[in-house]
Amino acid sequence: MARLANVFFCAAVTACLSILLTHATDHATQEMCAKRLAHGKRLGRRCIQYRLNDQPADEEVVVCPRKSHLIGSRVCKKACTQNSDCKGSKKKCVCDDVCGLTCLNPTFNTCERLRAPKYGSRLGKKLTVGSVMSFVCDTGYKLSGTAKRICQQDGTWSGSQPDCSPVDCGDPGHLWNGYIEGKKFTYSSVIKYMCFDGTKFDGLAMMATCEATGQWSFPLPRCMGSCTRPEILHAQLLLEEGRAAPISMDHGTSLTVQCSAGLVVSEPATPVCNNGTWSSLPICVQGGCDHRPKEISNGMALYRGTKYGDRVRYNCNAGYKLVGDTFLTCRNGRWEGTVPECKAVYCPHPGELTNGKVLLVGNIGKFEYRPYIRLPGQSEKIVYYCSTGYRLEGPSAATCINGMWSPDTRPKCVDNQHPMLPKTQELFTT
Ligand SMILES: *[C@@H]1O[C@H](CO)[C@@H](O)[C@H](O)[C@H]1NC(C)=O
């Protein structure tokens, strides 16, 4: 980690002023540096803390304290409050960063020569206090450590020696249905993207180089699986150009499904091979009916649809009887069965009424109903009358409903004079 260099600007009146100098080349800092250093000293491109024009130190005591909590790994020289505290004749009591007022040699220390990192170079030659030495790595290498080191008052360089290590693009990932040739993933390494046989390469390039930016020149491609010919009963499978489909087909192939005669595809689909799987697979089904079932008179056709297997049911109106098939089924494009007919149903002649007569109720009145007259149809009525001296026992009328008289009990005309003989006696009299 780069250590921040604390620089003090010392001026006659303002005493020590510290600013954090993180970027020695920072323009604003440079300017400030030049301005504030009227009574201080300036070295190279850096403002350095220095005893203000060799004036007595006591003026600064308060403003340049030793900041023990910030010292860290720094080794501080002897602390002082004034020049006379520093025994070595050449040393002076100066403000030394976090070390506070310290006895130092004002004729500057020099720092040791620094080597350039392997795969990199060093910029800057000066070894005097305040000099900056910077380091850059060759293309494809990245720097760790301190890129800019500053020769400090105590003769040591700030920060730590930098290192240049090759840029690593990293493992590009797993290539499904394929593999990657090449094991080195660092700068300028080349890898090959390989798809297994029977799969289709889907990508930008089959090779990639690890670039100085730490990126592969081409991303991981995709290897798309092939599809095997599907089994579709009663169908012929063709390729787009009309050729019969082979056992195995590449990713992206589309198929045409042709059903045998009388059959149709269940859905209007063209299966496409997508990475080993068909997008959809229709089946061959019996064709539907393209027309509705026939309507019939005096009845109706009830149906839901006209697809293969759908049924129609025929019903007749009241008074009509269905003759033919009640149900028809849609098969092979047509309604199978005989379209039925609704035939009117008539009531039979109810029989003669002894000692009475049967009358048919018509539009224009009642008239005697003889067996040779037309048969009555739905809802027609008959009424029963007894001759004089007889009385009707049973229903007096009946209605023709679906070919049957309702009620269907026949009345009798009994002698009005005499009570009915019991059955046993009847037997004796005959
Ligand atoms: C292709 O299929 C393989 C195997 O089924 C799967 O692992 C892979 O993720 C698929 N690739 C794509 C791009 O869908």
Strand runs, count: 37
The domain tally reads 6
Strand content of the residues, in percent?
A: 35-45%
Quickly give the structural class: mainly beta
Average pLDDT level: 80
C-alpha end-to-end distance: 142 Å
Radius of gyration: 58 Å
Residue share in helices? under 10%
How large is the count of helical segments? Answer: 3
How would you characterize the overall build of this protein?
The chain is mainly beta and 430 residues long. It folds into 6 domains: 5-104, no CATH class; 120-166, Ribbon (Complement Module, domain 1), CATH 2.10.70; 178-224, Ribbon (Complement Module, domain 1), CATH 2.10.70.10; 228-285, Complement Module, domain 1 (Ribbon), CATH 2.10.70; 299-344, Complement Module, domain 1 (Ribbon), CATH 2.10.70; 356-415, Ribbon (Complement Module, domain 1). 5% of the residues lie in helices and 35% in strands. It is built from 3 helices and 37 strands. The protein has a 5-stranded antiparallel β-sheet, with no helix packed on it. Strands 25-26-28-29 form a 4-stranded antiparallel β-sheet, with no helix packed on it. Strands 7-8-10 form a 3-stranded antiparallel β-sheet, with no helix packed on it. The longest helix has 10 residues, at 27-36. The protein is elongated. It binds 2-acetamido-2-deoxy-beta-D-glucopyranose. The site of 2-acetamido-2-deoxy-beta-D-glucopyranose has 6 residues, from loops. Residues 58-107 form the WAP domain.
Topology at a glance:
Layout: E1 5-11, E2 15-21, H1 27-36, E3 41-43, E4 46-48, H2 68-71, E5 92-95, E6 101-104, E7 120-123, E8 132-137, E9 141-144, E10 148-150, E11 163-166, E12 178-181, E13 190-195, E14 200-202, E15 207-209, E16 222-224, E17 227-228, E18 235-239, E19 248-249, E20 255-259, E21 263-265, E22 273-274, E23 277-278, E24 284-286, E25 299-303, E26 311-316, E27 320-323, E28 327-331, E29 334-336, E30 341-344, E31 356-362, E32 365-368, E33 381-386, E34 390-393, E35 397-401, E36 404-406, E37 412-415, H3 423-429
Antiparallel strand pairs: 1-2, 3-4, 5-6, 7-8, 8-10, 9-11, 12-13, 13-15, 14-16, 17-19, 18-20, 21-24, 22-23, 25-26, 26-28, 27-30, 28-29, 31-32, 31-33, 33-35, 34-37, 35-36
